[in-house]
Amino acid sequence: QIQDARNHVNQAIYLLMNRDVNYQFKTGSEVLKLMDAVMLQLSRARNRLTTPATLTLPEIASSGLTKMFTPALPPDILVNFYINLNKLCLTVYQLHVLQPSTTKNFKPAGGSILHNPGAMFEFGNQRYEVSHVHKVECVVPWLNDALVFFTVSLQLCQQLKDKISVFSSYWNYRPY
């Protein structure tokens, strides 16, 4: 999520810097169009930090997060890391293998930020049920600063757009 946010910021910077240093804007609408594109990238960056992705349990199982540990995690454990506002969250899912002969109704869980005990999924020709969920959070102070900077930058862009709109309408006014 942090890398995605950074990529959106880089795209906003590219939009702003992708002109010759002597370039002069011809119209207010040209500036408004640029500000809209920059604000879109900044909003996407902020949203990546404020709204974690919803994932299915098979997506978590295949994400590689579980495989990055040394020694390897037991096969009945899944882990997921994500950012939510100014916190780094770790969720550990303990799984129970469902036997093929089980009489339990199998209903695969959909996408979610946090899956509850009882959620079921299929992965690698095996069916699982979440038996326990453990979640811990750690506040990351600079993430809060980043969110504040995104909000302030979006406000400044909007103020610039508002001023350009006022002056554009003034310049376009032609008395009869």
Automatic annotation (TrEMBL):
It comes from the Eukaryota. It is found in: Cytoplasmic vesicle, Secretory vesicle, Synaptic vesicle. InterPro entries: RAVE2/Rogdi. GO terms for cellular component: RAVE complex; synaptic vesicle. Its main location: cytoplasm. Belongs to the rogdi family. This is Protein rogdi homolog. It comes from Phoenicopterus ruber ruber.
